[in-house]
Amino acid sequence: MRELEAEVGRPALTVPLVAARAGVTPSTIYRRWGDLQELLSDVAVERLRPEAPPEDHGRLSADLQNWAEQFLEEMASPPGRAYIRDALLGDPDGDNAGQCSAYAAEQIGIILARAAERGENIPDVETVIDRVVAPMMYRILFRPGNLTAAYAHTLVRETLDESVASR
Fold first, then answer.
1. d(CA 108, CA 116)
2. CA 106 to CA 104: how far, in whole Å?
3. How far is CA 66 from the centre of its chain?
4. pTM of the prediction?
């Protein structure tokens, strides 16, 4: 898919073209994915999978701010937005959306576990999803202006401030 998309461009992708490149019949693709959009959805989910654990900067605020900034930058980019769109459009039962959410939760979990080992006060994963990831995703999808590192940092700072105040 990646090679084909680079060669012919996304609008020219078809199931027969993908099947020919894969050395299978189009019916094989249709049986497995149903249609091109479902195939694109699965490909997008794989592209959205993090390649490495989040960097360790030595303290929770730095780790989470760095991760949120990178997440926002990647997801708000034109390719990131296209992958999000593909992941959701070809996903009638929500499995791919759930997988993308699980990727973010896993990365956040790593950051929080490191901070807990250092003795820092930490929020839970769902709080970070609700207060950092969800607002960024909403903005990426529906209000794409003003998506800056400062915005990501503000979400993290407010989340951590609320977490400390509630303990």
1. 12
2. 5
3. 15
4. 0.82
